[in-house]
Amino acid sequence: EVQLVESGGGLVQPGGSVTLSCAASGFTFSTYWMTWVRQAPGKGLEWVANIKEDGGEKYYVDSVKGRFTISRDNAENSLYLQMNSLRDEDTAVYYCARVALRSSWYDYWGQGTLITVSS
Amino acid sequence: QSALTQPRSVSGSPGQSVTISCTGTSSDVGGYNFVSWYQQHPGKAPKLMIYDVSKRPSGVLDRFSGSKSGNTASLTISGLQAEDEADYYCCSYAGSPYVFGTGTRVTVL
């Protein structure tokens, strides 16, 4: 059974940093693109970043470029999102999701982890 | 990277059909046949309902169908049921980035 479990959420001060983790199981992690999607309270979904199977390609939404870094450890079956210089508007539930093989859609999602940026 | 435009809400009675539009540009919806749709119940993770404009994953009922014309994609729910009440989001590949729609609340009257 495919499982994605996010962790690392909590309260962070503006300007602070945090790293989210996503533990993957039930599939060959190293053969899938992975993504982070966020959802601000009461708002819609927003694609944040993608990373290729081997970590060799990474893409970001403009609003997080230079502040967030997506990475992965295929030996540990884990996906990460390092978030620096956090702003109020980064407050959201962050979901990790698997990109279906050789495709452009997200077939499995984690349950999400909430990051609250506030002083 | 502007969000795709969806109606804020649509509603219908049980058994009726509703259609949700998703309008983008030639750089996203109109440029690729890579539109997907997700259903999200309150407090839950999104669930894939349609991919590649009109394909259904296994396990998704054929009451859900997708289409596209130009820069606008559409999701139709036929035979509306109480459990279909949820938020629905379209998503399109747009080159390297992806872009989601603004979301539509479907209400079953």
3D architecture notes:
The complex is a heterodimer of chains A (119) and B (109). Chain A has 119 residues and is mostly beta strands. Chain A has strands at residues 3-7, 10-12, 18-25, 34-39, 45-51, 58-60, 68-73, 78-83, 92-99, 106-109, 113-117. Helices cover 0% and strands 51% of the residues of chain A. Chain A is globular. The relative contact order of chain A is 0.31. Chain B starts with 8 loop residues before the first strand and ends with a strand. The mean pLDDT of chain B is 95. Chain B has 109 residues and is mainly beta. Chain B is globular, with a radius of gyration of 13 Å. Chains A and B meet through β5 and β10 of A and β3, β7 and β8 of B.
Overall average residue pLDDT of chain A: 96
Total count of strands of chain A: 11
Let me know the largest β-sheet of chain B.
6 strands, mixed
The overall pLDDT of chain B, averaged over residues, is: 95
What's the N-to-C terminus distance of chain A? 40 Å
Largest interface: A-B, 23 and 27 residues
| Principal-axes shape call of chain B | globular
Number of helices of chain A: 0
What is the helix fraction of residues of chain B, given as a range? under 10%
Give the topology string of chain A: H per helix, E per strand: EEEEEEEEEEE
Strand content bin of chain A: over 45%
Helix content of chain A: under 10%
Radius of gyration of chain B: 13 Å
Number of strands of chain B: 9
Strand share of the residues of chain B? Answer: 35-45%
Going by helix content, strand content and strand pairing, the class of chain B is mainly beta
Indicate the low-confidence ranges of chain B by residue numbers.
none
